[in-house]
């Protein structure tokens, strides 16, 4: 049984989710954490980061040529790693479309943000990005593995 749980944990995917400075300053941390937690995903890494400008720009390097790049001021981040079946894709659904004007009600951006430049949260957009972003923001020893006792109620017995 314990062994099964270890296998389950090893196979579970992980994603990088960060509450951006606007979300932190607006006091939305607990609201956002709660949405991932209530869904049934597992928090395996968490920290508040005040990165240097150079470091923060590594995160958005693919957007370097975009006109809004300099406005992407990740000066304060509530950084998290969430684990669970389908968490990368479903995490993006919980977050909603990039532009909060187009995010559905019920999503984090749809419910809590108004403009694209202040859309409060980041989530990895695919497996490769998730791996890269987790490695960028977290050291391996900052991530934990543990059995959440609710798992069998979330996933069933198999
Ligand atoms: P995502 O955050 O939904 O993955 P990306 O296209 O990767 O969206 O853009 C990264 C971030 O850049 C967005 O979350 C948003 O904060 C910002 N951004 C994207 N497009 C615009 C824009 O047209 N104006 C201002 N900021 C933008």
TrEMBL record:
GO cellular component, one term: mitochondrial intermembrane space
Annotated ranges, domain Nucleoside diphosphate kinase-like: 12-145
Cofactor dependency: Mg(2+)
Catalytic residues as annotated in Swiss-Prot or TrEMBL: 122
UniProt keyword list: ATP-binding, Kinase, Magnesium, Metal-binding, Nucleotide metabolism, Nucleotide-binding, Transferase
Main location: mitochondrion
Keyword Cytoplasm in annotation: no
Reaction catalysed by this enzyme: a 2'-deoxyribonucleoside 5'-diphosphate + ATP = a 2'-deoxyribonucleoside 5'-triphosphate + ADP; a ribonucleoside 5'-diphosphate + ATP = a ribonucleoside 5'-triphosphate + ADP
Binding site for ATP: 20, 68, 92, 98, 109, 119
Enzyme type, top EC level: transferase
Keyword Magnesium assigned: yes
Protein name, as recorded: Nucleoside diphosphate kinase
Organism field: Raphanus sativus (Radish)
Gene: LOC108831535
């Amino acid at each position: 049984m314990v062994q099964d749980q270890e296998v389950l944990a090893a196979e579970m995917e992980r994603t990088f989710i960060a509450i951006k400075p606007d979300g932190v300053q607006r006091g939305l941390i607990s609201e956002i954490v709660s949405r991932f937690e209530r869904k049934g995903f597992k928090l395996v890494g968490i920290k508040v980061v005040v990165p240097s400008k150079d470091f923060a720009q590594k995160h958005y390097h693919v957007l370097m040529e975009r006109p809004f790049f300099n406005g992407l001021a990740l000066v304060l981040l509530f950084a998290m790693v969430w684990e669970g079946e389908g968490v990368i894709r479903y995490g993006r659904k919980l977050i909603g479309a990039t532009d909060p004007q187009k995010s559905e009600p019920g999503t984090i951006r749809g419910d809590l943000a108004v403009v694209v430049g202040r859309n409060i949260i980041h989530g990895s957009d695919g497996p490769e990005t998730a791996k890269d972003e987790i490695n960028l923001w977290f050291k391996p020893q900052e991530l934990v593995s543990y059995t959440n006792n609710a798992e069998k109620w979330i996933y069933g017995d198999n």
